[in-house]
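Example record

One chain of 204 residues, shown exactly as stored in the release files.
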Amino acid sequence: EVEVVATIEARPESPDPEESVRRTQIRFDATADSVSIQTDFGDRLLDGRWLFDGRDPVPLVHYEIKVPRSVDLTLDDNRSEIELGDLLGRLRLHTDRSTVHVASFHGALDAEADRGSIRIDRLLLTDRGEFRTDRTDVELGVSSTAGMNLDFDLDRVSPDVDSGLLSSRISEDHRHVSYRGSIGRGGPTLHYSADRGSLRLRRV
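Predicted structure tokens for this chain:
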């Protein structure tokens, strides 16, 4: 069962707030074992008039989504603030200039981000993990007892890692950082490639 509450809020600068909200549609595609939710902002042209770079500014859409704790979740998002609770399963993130905060995640992870930030307070991999980021600030809380393998390929990113968390030293050549090692006794591999931004590994 999935419960969704969506609130559409016109921006203060909108010339016609009611019309701006009316043009915005929340679209659902549900099957027996999946639900897809999409925001459709519609045609924002205002009778051919040039306003705010030729378009009515899209309204703000606030979602509150309740899902089972064990879930296969995909988020494809642009310029939003996202809060996720305690989840198990598979998580796919594709974000552009968004802020993502995950309280706890246990499972397989695939994240691609352009700018913005991602923070996972507690990350425990049970399968492969993947990060591909550009100009993104990332903070991961990891356990030294649970363990994982690490494969880092970082350009212009100097990772900040709690002392004693890694099994070996990070090598840095000019503005490139590479690391092949582990946390604790190892485990599933976290592949991480990044260009600019920051990476913080924090012990939990």
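Notes: The longest strand covers residues 117-142.
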